[in-house]
Amino acid sequence: MNFVNPTPVQASAIPAALEGKDILGTAQTGTGKTGAFGIPLLASLHANGRQDALILAPTRELAAQIHEVLKQMSAGMKIYGSLVVGGESFNRQASELRRGADYIVATPGRLNDHLSKERWIFPTLDFWYSMKWIGCSIWDLRLKSDRS
Q1: Rg (CA), the chain
Q2: Is residue 1 part of a domain?
C-alpha cells in the first residue's frame, strides 16, 4: 500500500483514534475510511500484543473488502484477521477462529451464527467488554420511509 498523504477523513480520524478517543466518520466511497480506522487499529494491535478487535460490516462484499485492506496494511506485522461472513464455509471459519485472530471482520448474521454455536471467538470470558475496538462500517439506519 502506498500511503503518501492522508485523505481528509484519515487526517481527522487517525490522530483522535491514536489518542484513544472514539471516532465517527462519514465520507464517500473511495475516500479512505478503512484506513481511517484501520491504521490506528493495527498500530494498537501491534503495540499492545494480545488485544482483540471486531469490525462489523453490513454486507459480505464490504466485509471482504475491509478484510483484504487490513490484510495488506498489516503485512509483515504478525497480525492475523479472520473473515466471518455468510456464503463461506462455517467449519473453516470456526477452525480459523479457534486458532486465534487479532481481529475479526464480520457480518452481523454470520457472527451471530458463530456466537450461538461456540463461545471461543475471543479468548476472554466477557466478550463484549473485552473489545477495545468495535468498528461499524457504513451502517444506514434510516427507514426507507425517511428517505427523500
Answers
A1: 15
A2: no
Give the 3-state secondary structure of residue 18: helix
Condensed to tens digits (0 to 9), the pLDDT of residues 120-139 reads: 555 543 333 333 445 554 43
Angle ∠(130,132,134) on CA atoms, nearest 5: 105
For residue 39, give the amino acid letter.
I
Confidence of residue 145 (pLDDT cuts 50, 70, 90): very low
- 57 is in which domain, residue-wise? 8-18+32-139
136 vs 4: which has the higher pLDDT: 4
CATH number at residue 119: 3.40.50.300
Query: In sequence order, what DSSP letters do the residues of 48-108 get, joined into one string?
Result: HSS--EEEE-SSHHHHHHHHHHHHHHTTTTT--EEEE-TTS-HHHHHHHHHH--SEEEE-H
Task: Count the domains in the chain.
Answer: 1
| Residue of 78, 75, 135 whose CA lies nearest to 104 | 135
